[in-house]
Amino acid sequence: MSKNLVEAGLPKISEALASLSGRSETAVALTERCLSAIEAKDGVVNAYLSRDRDGALAQARRVDAGEVTGPLAGIPIGIKDVLAVEGQPATAGSKILEGYHPPYTATAVRRLQEAGAVLLGKINCDEFAMGSSNENSAYGPVRNPHDTDRVPGGSSGGSAAAVAAGMALATLGTDTGGSIRQPASFCGVVGLLPTYGRVSRYGLIAFASSLDRIGPFTSSTRDAALVLGAIAGHDPMDATSSTAPVPDYTASIDRGVAGLRLGVPAEYFAEGLDPEVRRPVEETIEKLRAAGAEIVPVSLPHTRYAVPTYYVIATAEASSNLARFDGVRYGYRAADAKTLSDMYRLSREGGFGPEVKRRILLGTYVLSAGYYDAYYKKAQQVRRLLTDDFLTAFGQVDAILTPTAPTAAFKLGEKTDDPMAMYLADIYTVTASLAGICGLSVPCGTTSDGLPVGLQILGKHFDESTLFRVGQAVENLPR
Prior knowledge:
Elements: H1 13-21, H2 27-45, E1 48-51, H3 53-64, E2 76-80, H4 107-114, E3 118-123, H5 157-164, E4 170-175, H6 181-187, E5 190-193, E6 213-218, H7 221-231, E7 261-265, H8 275-290, E8 294-298, H9 306-321, H10 340-351, H11 354-367, H12 373-393, E9 399-403, H13 419-423, H14 430-435, E10 438-446, E11 452-459, H15 464-476
Parallel strand pairs: 2-3, 2-4, 7-8, 7-9
Antiparallel strand pairs: 1-3, 4-6, 5-6, 5-10, 9-11, 10-11
Helix pairs in contact: 2-3, 5-6, 7-15, 9-11, 9-12
Family: Belongs to the amidase family. GatA subfamily.
GO molecular function: ATP binding; glutaminyl-tRNA synthase (glutamine-hydrolyzing) activity; transferase activity
Organism: Silvibacterium dinghuense
């Protein structure tokens, strides 16, 4: 079944905005190109769970008529199905939310609408954003457009695949432990993890509230800067959103890396890194040195504790957040329950998939009486040490460079029987999630089989501008 469905014909957002402004293409025509790609390819890729063809074309017509304006007017965008859009299905990739239609719209999505974007539909994902391969959706796995026998990464694999296959100019995903950056690496697109608090989480179906973040997938760094500029900023509906001003992220994007100090941590280039990934990453770092950056060795000594720390904290918060899905308030309810207790038990048993159940059980255990101090409290203390590692390193450098993932995209089913092997796919991304800093994955080359490899750029809290500056420089490097 192996096919290559990557689409190179769609314009970047910056190019499309110029075409729309110059009237050389209409918003309706651009939207129809995306809808046609969805029609032609999504039977294989399975990126979209629902499509809003009529709504998208109606919005595009309003843009063409001049009734809707804004920085993203006429740009077709897909939305990961963990974000609420009023009146549209919201499943979070789970059977337990089947048939649920939120009565409100997430702030990040509403801001896209206010910027004039055209919403194409809701995009497939691992159930409740839990997974590293997008094989845990109740609605079937998503396939990688570069090789449809391989995974697109998770949990935002559908959002990454949609951009790679030309089924949207941009998409929104969410990142809890690497769920934007890792699929961006696997699918050869740009994926941004904004600083925690930079983008409002209001309207996001929560997995782990102290870790969840919303960010864009695009085909270029400049496009990611444009989308972040539209969705970032304080939101009174989210007490954790920051009041820090939102800069113009494109203002300094073309300054290059000359004069920047870029750190390279030895802990990210140790045992377990596939040589096929190491080669293009190290070649890119050397090219950045030649472009004028100073490459500085740094150390993040507590990195080896990151994966277990992440899975203690994330599962604990998941067990708490998912308690609300009980067959009473939302979606699926078991039909054959005879008592109230049976209704709760059978609804959760039938509504949740195996990975969600595994994480709820783990999280309930680490929060239980007698184990809280040994696991959850200890994990929070280690999280502080991991954050301090970054703060110390950022005292020496402007940004840090690492591989995004230890391997390129693996085969569908290759790791489904080994949860630990699956969890280690996030080994290079979870540290930034725990520390609350920002990160960007940009394509930096391919393996000998032609599979994409991503370079991860990590930045200080609220310093996305430096990430975009380095990402743009990587795109400008000679190949």
